[in-house]
Amino acid sequence: MDILIVGMGKLGYKLAETLSSGEHNITVVDVEEQALQRAVNRLDVLAVTGNGAQLQLLQEVGAGKKDLVVAVTSSDEINVLICLTAKKLGCPRVAARVRHPEYAGQIDFFKEQLAIDFITNPELDTANEVARYLLRGYTSHLESFAGGRVGLFEVPAQGLPEVVGKTLAEADVFRDMLVVAIYRDGEVLIPSGATRVESDDLLQLIGRREAVTALIRGHGALGQRHVAKKVMILGGGKAAFYLAGRLLASGLSVKIIEQDEERCNYLAAQLPGALVICGDGTDLDLLQDENLAEMDALVSFTGHDEENLMLALLGKQQGVPKVVAKVSRSNFVPIIEQLGIDRAVNPVLISAGELVRFIQGGQIASLSLMFGGQAEVLEMVVPPGAPIIGRKLSEARIPQGVILGAVVRRGQVFIPKGDSVLQGQDRVIAFCLHRELPALNKLFYPKRKGLGHELWTGRKGAGKPSAD
């Protein structure tokens, strides 16, 4: 697929990084040469320096002949303009980042009347993910695939003391599920039956939803349910605004602590059901006065990773059952969760996953970027004629960095084995290390043409929005 990405901030870079490994032809545009040089040095992309909103530049890079144009500059309005221009030039599909709350009610209009095929909002996507976690009940992280039939569960090995010190082949608690990955000392390991579980490991289990939930319910703290009723949000930015609205609509009590007085007035006016307190969220006395220890959940959404980490750890120290921290650096996500914080969320990873799912169309039903982007969990619909169809999995040359964790066929879930044979239209939930994505694509999809990387200077647009 031939793709143009305008804007090489955090989201643009992560999207280019994810897609370039899949053998797409990627062209990136930004006004900042430094951002482009970083991409060229690390990724297989063609980089163009210039203002992506200019008609002449879009014509020069062949926007009208691209399969997809994605606009993720720092300006919502510029992103919409780029998509409109690309559509007029003949591009069949366009996607934009639009994240200001004032435009939230216009998304359907943008799609229907302006023909923008997909709109992503990192803060809204993050708020929705956190809301799902808070409303779900379980303390540990659980994701669902295949309409809820398949569950992906993150388990600290210490929560399953009977498996610590044993190999996976010796452990008999993982019935109807697979350990698809182990996070150990900052590295993602793809285990085999001979892999021995260590006490500090973080296990990723995938299998039938009923089997996964039965396992966690039967193991102490893993099975504890904490239905959140009172939630404290530290920081009143866009993600906090969206999250508070979602929680209020679900009947929860929401308290927001924000330092900026003007922002507090805005939140109080827009969220009449929330208690908005103007103050410093890092002030321990204020947090104690506001009964932090009595909260069911604490969400730290300030603009600083270090503050979010410190406040989240404080919340755990105070006994808050569920604690969530937002981090801007994706490589911090697995590290922070290793410290005992229940969830670390990164808006860039979440939106990049949504964009990749849209780009893949019907081939990818859902996608989650894991461990700061080191790995992905994909729910794929096996297309007719895929090379993997009709072959025993043991003979399909599946690389070591890929595990097919579950298959859904005609509504029934089964864990594939070496003698299993996939069929067209099967839904496959696969765990894949990022570096093995090209190998996974070759098993399921026709081979795409690669692209050598190159940097050339186009028409610059001084003073125009570029990255994040």
How is this fold's topology laid out?
Blueprint: E1 2-6, H1 10-20, E2 25-30, H2 33-42, E3 46-49, H3 55-60, E4 68-71, H4 76-89, E5 94-97, H5 107-113, E6 118-120, H6 122-136, E7 142-145, E8 150-156, E9 177-184, E10 187-189, E11 202-208, H7 209-217, E12 230-234, H8 238-249, E13 253-258, H9 261-270, E14 275-278, H10 284-289, E15 297-300, H11 305-317, E16 322-326, H12 333-338, E17 343-345, H13 347-360, E18 364-370, E19 375-381, E20 402-409, E21 412-414, E22 427-433, H14 437-444, E23 454-457
Parallel strand pairs: 1-2, 1-4, 2-3, 3-23, 4-5, 5-6, 12-13, 12-15, 13-14, 15-16, 16-17
Antiparallel strand pairs: 7-8, 8-11, 9-10, 9-11, 18-19, 19-22, 20-21, 20-22
Helix pairs in contact: 1-13, 6-8, 6-13
Description:
The structure is a single chain. This protein is of the alpha/beta class and 468 residues long. It folds into 4 domains: 2-125 and 450-457, NAD(P)-binding Rossmann-like Domain (Rossmann fold); 145-223, Alpha-Beta Plaits (2-Layer Sandwich), CATH 3.30.70; 229-320, Rossmann fold (3-Layer(aba) Sandwich); 350-444, Alpha-Beta Plaits (2-Layer Sandwich), CATH 3.30.70.1450. It is 30% helix and 25% strand. It is built from 14 helices and 23 strands. It has helices at 10-20, 33-42, 55-60, 76-89, 107-113, 122-136, 209-217, 238-249, 261-270, 284-289, 305-317, 333-338, 347-360, 437-444; strands at residues 2-6, 25-30, 46-49, 68-71, 94-97, 118-120, 142-145, 150-156, 177-184, 187-189, 202-208, 230-234, 253-258, 275-278, 297-300, 322-326, 343-345, 364-370, 375-381, 402-409, 412-414, 427-433, 454-457. It has a 7-stranded parallel β-sheet with strand order 6-5-4-1-2-3-23, sandwiched between helices. Strand 4, helix 4 (76-89) and strand 5 (94-97) form a beta-alpha-beta unit. Helix 1 (10-20) crosses helix 13 (347-360). The chain is globular, with a radius of gyration of 23 Å.
